[in-house]
UniProtKB/TrEMBL annotation:
Protein family membership: Belongs to the class-III pyridoxal-phosphate-dependent aminotransferase family.
Sorted UniProt keywords: Aminotransferase, Pyridoxal phosphate, Transferase
Keyword Transferase: yes
Designated name of the protein: Acetylornithine aminotransferase
PANTHER family per record: ACETYLORNITHINE AMINOTRANSFERASE, MITOCHONDRIAL (PTHR11986:SF79), AMINOTRANSFERASE CLASS III (PTHR11986)
Keyword Mitochondrion carried by entry: no
Provenance organism: Polaribacter reichenbachii
TM ranges: none
Reported cofactor(s): pyridoxal 5'-phosphate
InterPro entries for the chain: Aminotrans_3, Aminotrans_3_PPA_site, Class-III_PLP-dep_AT, PyrdxlP-dep_Trfase, PyrdxlP-dep_Trfase_major, PyrdxlP-dep_Trfase_small
UniProt cross-references to Pfam families, sorted A to Z: Aminotran_3
Listed GO MF terms: identical protein binding; pyridoxal phosphate binding; transaminase activity
Amino acid sequence: MPLFNVYPLYDVTPVSGKGVYVYDEKYTEYLDLYGGHAVISIGHAHPKYVEAVRSQVEKLGFYSNAIQNPLQTQLANKLETLSGCKDYQLFLCNSGAEANENALKLASFKTEKSRVIAFKNGFHGRTSAAVAATDNKNIIAPINAQQKVTILDLNDIDAVKTELEKGDVCAVIVEFIQGVGGLDEATAEFFEQVDVLCKINNTLFIADEVQSGYGRSGKFFAFQHYNVTPDIISIAKGMGNGFPIGGILIHPSIEAKFGMLGTTFGGNHLACAAGLSVLEVIEEQELINNVNEISCYFLKLAKTIPQIKKIKGKGLMLGLEFDFEVGELRKKLIYDYQIFTGGAMNKKLLRILPPLTVKKDHINQFFEALVDALDEN
């Protein structure tokens, strides 16, 4: 049976990983500065992570959410402590798309309204409401387009105010650093005014932290760079270091009711064990400090390369913008220099999303390769 051919694939077959490196079937070593779309947060095959998953699967890999699961409570408490999101409630699911889907559904339940405001170049997932709020017509099927979504420009606060005052908007959803769209950010004034306007107009403010969360921006969450209080925070990617897990953090003002949300696999024992180990490693190895240190070093080196026209993002969620499309450069970095990087909807942007454990030597390796690759063009 053939696979459904929806992915353009590079001719590389990783079979193992260790730290910031992956290895193919010929034992070729690749420096991973993309982390499988920002998923690998604490490094490939981190020993604490491996032991947590191994130990849990030996005991109990799964049971439904109809029973007590103390691991969920442990994960919630650890997340509250490290994130600083005091008194928020946690609902666990399986992916970023599912997290945003549940966030939007919960906003509609709470406000009894149905329209969503999202922003140009935003990406929130591929499930029905989440993809409708995504600014990419190529991935929105007619069944998704039935959702009521208004896409606005970042930083256009007047447009946000006008739409909110119509009284039918249940949620404003935003990435504080856009991922797939190309690392664009709004101003602090914009984010903070949107937060205020949402509260005035009985609209929930959803922070999509699926890619930027868990320390990647230099703070635990990217919204924490600003004076805002999201009603719902969606999380996934780096949350499980490769194990499928997602969730939403829900403000204490939102009351739960039996049956309001649900999932079969969300918050299963294995996922919680993986998620707990990630938080423990972030804390024990002080990885957010490492993010900020390595980010400063990365920016310092990037500014010395004249072909780089703009540096975007924060922490270890970074983009290098050129005056040419970077598709061939990415191929050269993979095939000639054995370095994984990422692309974006902005075809001139090279995305850098390494494990949070990355060191200066790895950054040196990247920039040496980048300079050589650019000189060959």
